Fold this protein.
Amino acid sequence: MPIPTRIAKCLLHAALLTTLALATPTRADDCEEQWLTDLGVYGIYRDVYTTALWDPDGPGPSAAQLVVGGDIYISDGSPFSVDRGVARWDGVQWQKFPQGLRGPLAPTQGATVHAIAVLDIGTLVIGGTFFGVTPGSQTLSGGAYWDGTHWRPFGRASGEPDLGPRKMTVLDDGTLIASGRLYPQVGNPFALARWNGSDWEPLITVLSPFTPIETLAAQDNDLLIGGRFSNLILPGSEDILRWTGPYPGTWSAFPPPGEVGASTQVNAITTLPNGDIIAGGRLSADGTHLVARWDGSTWTPMNAGLEGVQEIGALYTRPDGTVFAGTRHRSPAAPIAGRLLKWNG
């Protein structure tokens, strides 16, 4: 079915919960700017890959909710009985969607959400590794949108669980951009394309131009992509590239936020209301530099409070400028694996 393109440690525990409920944050002036790990919010386990703000009833009375995707599950103490892949924070607790995502092997195993986007008509779209839903028998093939009651297929059905968007973002003009195996027009694992309402149109025409694309972010009507690139579009440029429309557009280099090497990469990019950019991932080989802020001319590190974190996997900026981060860890036993962090600056 075609979808239209236009669409603190210095804070009290209760105030932190209210912050996630999208209230205006407060700040103690004498607090050092840092990432806060004790948000009092538990129940998300394993790796967070993507986040988005979504208002389930549009202009209705319900508040917007934070939607989180990844190799995650939510639990009240019984992790083997819950649905994996995607969850939403309603201001009080994590909520499952009425339909759970079904992985390729078993209903509650292997379902991973890599990408979340909200179109400008309010439609929630997800992409990742999943085959269908439970309860139900709907085939999703790695891409789906929420119609208010059910997950429905997004894109062309392929019959394979990993043929779908792995990263997504929406430009200011409403254009949905995705990377992944975007069947059938763009059929390789490193494809990058825009959704025209019924099909994917490639932004690149060469095969496997970089590997891998870890994040897509909108800066007005420009597109920023991050990862660890072996780049054939702009030889010599690494980590972040910029695409400028209109379609088919042009590519330009962007200054890297840290070291460039085999053990570093940009996993997440978010744009602040003032136009500044925050990039996160593993930005140094020794793992001590994970987040940085670009003010238009210089990258400034934002690593305070990240002791014990191995990588940043996702970044999200609320409309009021509050920044959240999701952690990514190679070991689930890491000190704050699968936790949500908040910047108190």
